[in-house]
Every structure is written in C-alpha cells, then in structure tokens.
Amino acid sequence: MGRSLDEDPLTLAIAPPSDETPEQRAAREVAEAEAKRISDEIDELIRKEREQIRRTKKPVKLLLLGQSESGKTATLKNFQLTYARKEWSEERAAWRAVIFLNLVRNVNVIMAHFTSEMSDMPYDPNDSSEELHIVPRAPRALARLKFTDEHRELRERLVPLASLQQSLEGKLGSASLELHSTSVSVAAPFDATTNGHSHPHTQHHSPHRRGMQEFSINSSNGWKSALDRLRAFRHTSGAALSSSSSSRNDMTDTEAIGSGFTPTRDRDPEEDIAELLAECREDIKKLWEDNTIREVLNRRKVRLEDAPGFFINDADRIASREYQPTDDDVIRARLRTLGVQEYKFIFDHGRTMGQEWRLYDVGGTRSSRGAWYPYFDDVDAIIFLAPISPFDEKLAEDKRVNRLEDSYLLWRSVCSCKLLSRTQIILFLNKCDLLQAKLQRGVRIRDSVPSFGDRKNDLQTATKYFQQHFKEISRASSPVQRPFYVHLTSVIDTRSTAVTLGAVEESILREHLRRADLM
Ligand SMILES: Nc1nc2c(ncn2[C@@H]2O[C@H](COP(=O)(O)OP(=O)(O)OP(=O)(O)O)[C@@H](O)[C@H]2O)c(=O)[nH]1
Ligand SMILES: [Mg+2]
C-alpha cells in the first residue's frame, strides 16, 4: 500500500502552517511565484548557454582574401602564433629552408643586376628572372660604374648560389616560385558568378570537388605541402638532390657540381645548404654593403627592402650552420600560396579557447581568384588584406596593373558579391610600415594617385585618404549596407597584430554566435 501524500516528510516540511491567515497566504504565494520566476530564468540561461556551447562546436570559419603578397599568409601565421602556440613551435624549424631560399634569392637578384651592369647588358624589365617590381633604368646617360677585380672575384665566389636557389625551388615545389604572368586580365574572375551567372573558372569548383592542381592544393595544414616536400628531400640524403621531379628547376648532381654546389652524400642536405651559406656569409655581406653595387640597385630602382622575403640585412645571423628561425623570421618568410588551403586550429588561448577555427588562405594572383567563389558560401567572416604601400607598384603577374588599383577593384567585387551580402568583412589596410618608410623617402603619392592632390604626404593623411576610399567603395557597392570594420596593420609586427587579432576574434565570434542563432 502506498503512503498518503499527507505523510510525505518533504510535503509536510514545506506545507503552510495550519494557522496561516489569508494575508499570510497571499504573501507566501507571491514569494513562491517570484522564486519560481527566478528559478525558471536560471534554467533558461543554463539551457541557452548549453545550446550556445553546443552550437559553437561548429568551427568558426574565416576566409582571408586579397591580392598576391598582400599579407594573407602572414596574417594566418599570426593567428597560429597567437592562438595555437604548440603547433607554431613545432613548425618553426621547418621554415629554415624557406628562409634560406629567401636569402639566397635576395643575393641572386643583386647578382643578376650587378652582372648585367658589369657586362653593360641592357636592362630588360620583362626578363622572367626578375622577381621584383623594377622599373627600367632612366634614359638619361649616367657615367659607367667602375668595377674592380675584387668585384669580379666576389661574383665568382657567389655564383654557386644560383644553383642552390634552383635546387631549393625544385625541392619546395611551385609555391616557392613567384608568378610573373597570367592569362587572366580581370581583377575578380569570380565576378560573373556573383551576378548570378555561372563562370568558367568556378563552374566546377566546390570545396569537395576541385580538380586543377594549381587551384586546389588543400590539406589540413596547407604550407606543409611545400615543407613536406622539403622534409622528404632531407630524409633521402644528399642523393635526393639529383632526383627527378616535376619541377623545371631540378638539377642533377653533375649540374650542381658543375655550377659549384656539391652536396655531401650521407648527410642532411639542409646542413649542406647551411654550410655553403655560412661559407658565403662574408661575401654576401660584402655584396650588400658595397657602394658600387648599391649604386647599381639605385640606378635600376631595385628596392629589395620592400620585396617579400627580405632577409639579406640579417645575413650575418641566417647564413650560419647554427641558424634557427625566430618567430619574426617565420612571419616574414615568403612562400606563395597555391589554390585554397584550409588550416584547422583548436585555439589554445583567447576567449575562444578550445574552439575550432578553420582559416582559408587563398592564392591571391589574378589567375588564382577564380577558385575563391565556392568558399564564399559558408564563412562567418572575411579578412580582406589591402596593402597600401604599393600605391606606385605594379602587379607581378601583370605589369600593366597598379597594385592599389587592383585592390580597389577586388574590394569592390567582394563588397558587391550577393552571396557575401550578410557576411562580416574586416578590412586590413596592410603594410603601413612600408608605406611610412616610402613616404619618409620622399615618394609622393599624388605622382601615382592623382586624386590624392595636394594633401599632406604623410602617413596619417595617406591612411585616412585610402581608408575613406575603401569605405566609399563598400558603401556604394554593398547590396545591403554593412558596417565598415577597418584596421591599419603591419602584420609582420607580431605584437601589434596580436592586439588587432584580439579585437577581430571577439567581433568574429559575436558574428558566429549570431549566425548560429539564426540557423
Ligand atoms: N614589411 C611588411 N611586410 C609584410 C607585411 N605583410 C606581409 N609582409 C610580407 O610580404 C610578403 C608576402 O606576404 P604573404 O603573406 O606571403 O602574402 P599573401 O597575401 O599570402 O600572398 P599569396 O600567397 O601570393 O597570395 C611576406 O614576405 C610577408 O612577410 C607588412 O605589413 N609589412
Ligand atoms: Mg599566401
């Protein structure tokens, strides 16, 4: 037989006193109702929080867009450095070979100009070996530079670095080669698709169905595709230097020996490279510090300092057997992005600790942009990188196009894209450090950007002007008005970038939760 409710101890304990007056009863019922309301509110908060946590299990997706060399990969590296430090530390050493290649390239660019000036060869700006944004020598006649025997000997001693560059490029694959021309002459080849028509470049691309290798290298950690090649190269000993590969830059051992770079067998080839560089260290410094050679570069308007992967100033530190990359070196190392690469990070710092983020880093050359469109569909936010220092430079892949103009066109296409009309877009006006240096050297903006007019040629005025221009484009071209988020950045400055990323993280997360609520 069951117990009567009247006998339940709890019921008895909380039962109203038998002598309760009607007033006391009314007051008790009000208090009970209030307690229930508070309790329900707490239950609802807990439910929402749980729901939010459940939803945020969905990765936060962030797409990085911008022209080539705008700093997308450098921004991605800053994310990793700030929020996924363990992975960052594990990968740091793998960048050593890329930095060696960057340094060797700096040397070889100087060597190419120095050699052609020494042999009085006419300068050909279309020469495919040119990697920098160089303008032809001014037509006025300048006195011929005087080269000494010491210059000739220096040149002889540094010749092996040409084959070293080829070998490193061959082993790192096409990511290590810059693109010098492209058949695509429009800024946003995805544009036709954005207007509702299919486009030949994007028709068959989807994140799950991508074919062409140039457009689609996709791994859980993209730059590893290049670095893995290098690891394979290291682990197959010196003999790997002669292995055949798809790269046009592979050389045979015979070629390597003939041109002065002789790999030592049975040893990690990266150590051979470090050793060769260490042997060349004093000559590299001499080359960079020589007044006549500096004059060659000045006359040809070659500014290595503004170019990606500038390391020759650090030759003393890098050209060494013991060299290990620092965080800053890795951020500054240049390796071109091929296709669209997906990076997954579980953040181990910050407000979103434990949260998975997926960052999509794209190749920014005009011929790569057709592959972006499939990724517009499902991202929480876009960071658009627009470098503002190259207002007087041309695209590497199309020497007729001004870089700033290209960024404006691309920005307009992204802002006007219907698929992105409700996507948060954060603009980074990047390379402010290089802009400042350029303005300090006396380069006038109005000579390249006539609409800048007689404004003050200083950093503050320039950034305000460029910012306003991007804002107007956004306002005029966005299908639905959107807030204009902008940051002035120099993403090689890891400290200030960490602060910027903190603000970005919060704003993207808010957007992520808002989108989750809408679903
Ligand atoms: N001085 C300076 N260099 C920068 C800045 N941002 C990027 N760089 C350097 O510029 C070079 C190109 O940057 P990346 O991040 O590789 O450019 P990207 O946009 O990924 O280029 P693609 O992969 O070709 O599309 C690298 O060597 C960077 O270290 C900056 O704000 N200041
Ligand atoms: Mg990149």
Automatic annotation (TrEMBL):
Gene3D superfamilies, per database record: GI Alpha 1, domain 2-like, P-loop containing nucleotide triphosphate hydrolases
Residues that bind Mg(2+): 337
Example GO molecular function: G protein-coupled receptor binding
Protein residues bound to GTP: 430-433
GO biological-process terms attached to the record: adenylate cyclase-modulating G protein-coupled receptor signaling pathway
Keywords: GTP-binding, Magnesium, Metal-binding, Nucleotide-binding, Transducer
Gene Ontology CC entries for this record: cytoplasm; heterotrimeric G-protein complex
Region (Disordered): 1-29, 238-267
Listed name of the protein: Guanine nucleotide binding protein, alpha subunit
Protein species of origin: Crepidotus variabilis
